[in-house]
Specification:
The chain is α/β, with parallel strands linked by helices and 256 residues long. Strands 1, 2, 3, 4, 5, 6, 7 and 10 form an 8-stranded mixed sheet that branches. A two-stranded parallel ribbon has the order 8-9. Strand 6 and strand 7 form a beta hairpin. About 5% of the residues have low confidence. Bound molecules: zinc ion. Zinc ion binds next to strand 2 and helix 3.
Length: 256
């Protein structure tokens, strides 16, 4: 009887330790919620999380036009940091990319990065450089910038970008983008540029927006920004974000 009790006490203590250990591990996870967070053990570093959600419809609103590539002069604000000068290496998870109607996700990524140097002051200053594939399916602060496909917490989250930066120098330390692999994805360019009526989310359209955070731009949610690449919501069949508006370019040029 006594022995049994002792075993019971040990079992309870073990269960408690295991539980609190799991809780502690969970605490170090970065919330999948827009915001700025501390980085455990790295007091000089902060991490900013950008969650790209599916556009909700408020009272009386109708679906935004997703096909026409309207321009916008609304200047996008800085998120508060910049990329270092020189080469910015990145890794891409192509193996876990969904079927993109013939699209190769590495090529799509290269195209998406290119938008941010065409006609902006990043051209000749920061070179985005593809290094190799990665098999990582989520974010990890390891000084390796990745674009990947993986699970996210919410079904209406299209993609999440994590930017680690030095809180004193305001220079980026690392960027990771996770695309929600559970959604229906496509790539409009297989039909020709600007083609309408694709089903699901266009990979280049969404990724070009995410990479805007890599270069230091913020999200905007007001209607003045609805045609900007950096509009904070995404929509199915939307393709207009795969090229920048004048306001997105002006935002970059204010930072660099
Ligand atoms: Zn965003």
């Amino acid at each position: 009887m006594k022995k049994k009790l002792l075993i019971g006490v040990f079992a309870a203590a073990f269960a408690f330790l295991a539980f609190s250990g799991a809780a502690m591990a969970k605490k170090q996870d970065i919330p999948e919620k827009n915001g700025v967070y501390d980085v455990p053990g790295k007091p000089d570093m902060k991490v900013r999380v950008f969650v790209h959600k599916v556009k909700p419809f408020f009272n009386g609103e109708t679906a935004l036009p997703v096909c026409n590539d309207y321009d916008s002069t609304s200047v996008v604000k800085s998120a508060g940091w910049k990329l270092p000068k020189g080469t910015w290496d990145y890794y891409v998870n192509t193996a876990d990319a969904p079927d993109l109607n013939g699209g190769n996700f590495k090529d799509i990524t290269v195209d998406s990065f290119a938008q941010w140097t065409i006609g902006t002051d990043l051209s000749g200053r920061t070179d985005f450089h593809y290094v190799a594939p990665t098999d990582q399916t989520t974010y990890k602060q390891d000084f390796k910038n990745i674009v990947t496909w993986g699970p996210v917490s919410n079904s209406n989250t299209i993609a999440v970008t994590y930017t680690w930066y030095n809180r004193r120098t305001k220079v980026v330390v690392e960027n990771d983008t996770v695309m929600n692999a559970a959604l229906n994805w496509s790539w409009a360019d297989y039909l020709g540029k600007g083609v309408c009526g694709i089903t699901g989310f266009d990979a280049q359209n969404i990724l070009t927006h995410e990479l805007g955070h890599w270069v230091g731009l913020n999200d905007h949610y007001t209607s003045a920004y609805q045609h900007n690449t950096m509009f904070g919501y995404g929509s199915p069949a939307e393709v207009k974000k795969d090229t920048l508006t004048a306001g997105d370019i002006a935002g970059v040029n204010k930072i660099y």
